[in-house]
Amino acid sequence: MEKLHSDIKSVRILICLLVQKGIKEIVLSPGSRNAPLLVSVAREKRLKHHVIVDERSAAFFALGIAQQTGQTVALICTSGTALLNYSPAVAEAYYQGIPLLVISADRPSEWIDQDDSQTIQQQGTLCNFVKKSFQLPTVITCNEDRWHTNRLVNEAINLSQHGRKGPVHINVPLREPLYDFQHESITSERVIKTLKESPSLTAEISQNLREEFFLCPKVMIIAGFHEPDPVLQQHIKLLASLPNVIILTESVTNLSIPLVISTIDRVISTIQPEEAETYAPELLITFGGSIVSRMIKAFIR
Description:
Blueprint: H1 9-20, E1 25-28, H2 35-43, E2 48-51, H3 55-69, E3 73-77, H4 87-96, E4 100-106, E5 133-135, H5 143-161, E6 168-173, H6 203-215, E7 219-223, H7 230-240, E8 245-248, H8 264-268, H9 276-279, E9 283-287, H10 294-300
Parallel strand pairs: 1-2, 1-3, 3-4, 4-6, 5-6, 7-8, 7-9
């Protein structure tokens, strides 16, 4: 029988949960310390993997897939500064609300800061640009260790998809030997699900907002960064047809509607200082992520 997955228990748990929790795309960057992860993913036929040598390029490639699909995409790199090369794309994912699962192989803790090849302080390295960082146990020696590892991986994957989506980091310390592989395939793992909240407004609040909207003579809607959404596009199209509404969008909004203004700076630049009060909205509605145009932000402020 073909040898498939790594003997390292934390790797087996991680790979199994990637499959069971529906992670479809994984981007791999070759290395030595991450070999148990690479080989296990490459031999797992239920996972689609892409091999990109340069970690910076790999991270942006994964970002693009996650941006288009809205689904969590996993990244796997080796130890050391390889992880730092993910930073630009991870920061983009954090501020755009794009789900990435960053998986970094690491040396065992006893070799950190001991001038061992390719070692840095990896735990928490991306803390400013991820929703949370997780450190898996180096060795699983008892049922509690196994339960703990399972919980951490479940929590990490859930967190990337729950609430406002975003990147999550899993650091995986791996001790040699790295190239021992078992004959049997992975089995099933405990799957922990997170219940999704469904935000809603009371009938009274909805009615109050509706009255305020239609009674206001000058409504401005500014759309920030947003993933493509056909349903939203139809609603915005209806709002744009109202006589008291003006809608401003940018290319990152991913809305293509004839009645909206997509050239914000060009329009704002024609407004003279003495006209600003005339064009100022009485009701401002914004949605989506960040707005690129400095001119509209300055005008509103």
